[in-house]
Write a structure and sequence with these properties.
Layout: E1 17-20, E2 23-26, H1 32-49, E3 53-57, E4 61-63, E5 70-72, E6 76-80, H2 90-93, E7 101-105, H3 112-124, E8 129-134, E9 139-144, E10 147-152, E11 156-158, E12 166-168, H4 169-173
């Protein structure tokens, strides 16, 4: 497995810094609804996947197949079992791969162009599904290589890459204002 490069990103800065093709961007500090949605989506993916995957929040990944590598920290990441080394070490702690499933929860000041760049990086580096949650609009966007659909309240978001995965937007946003 390829080792992640040292991009000089400080580990002790909160919120985390992401590097996109050599430029640094600090993530937004999460607020209540962001945190609640992050927790709900991590639980949903855990229930859906059972024990067949590793699921984490605010987990740094290194996308290194480019001249200027990137390092992204998705709100929730799902990695199929066996894609990471079983033993402890740098290759497991600093994975040089894109998660199979990525969840990005929008913050009020997120920039659309930056979001689209991140989605492209994830998909180009092997993510099968990027789920973009917009708490303000109460939508869930399912981005796959050949499909990009947005579900709204009252609908259920589906994935073609993972046909058994669905997100009921009423349940996801229940009680979140």
């Amino acid at each position: 497995m390829q080792l992640a490069p040292d991009l000089g990103i400080p580990d002790d800065v909160k919120p985390a810094i992401e590097s996109i093709r050599g430029r640094w961007y600090q993530k937004m500090s999460p607020r209540t609804r962001h945190s609640l949605l992050q927790f709900r989506l991590a639980k949903l993916l855990e229930r859906w996947a059972g024990e067949g995957a590793l699921i984490g929040t605010e987990w740094r990944f290194y996308l290194v197949r480019e001249e200027r590598p990137s390092s992204l920290v998705p709100d929730v990441a799902w990695v199929a079992e066996g894609r990471l080394p079983a033993e402890a070490g740098d290759a497991r702690e600093r994975p040089a791969l894109a998660p199979d499933i990525v969840v990005e929860i929008l913050s009020p000041r997120d920039r659309k162009r930056l979001l689209e760049t991140k989605i492209g990086l994830y998909v180009d580096h092997g993510s099968s599904l990027v789920i973009v949650v917009d708490p303000a609009k109460r939508t869930v966007r399912m981005c796959e290589r050949d499909r990009d659909e947005t579900a709204r309240i009252g609908e259920i978001a589906h994935s073609t890459a993972y046909p058994t995965l669905s997100i009921d937007l009423e349940a996801l946003f229940k009680g979140i204002v």
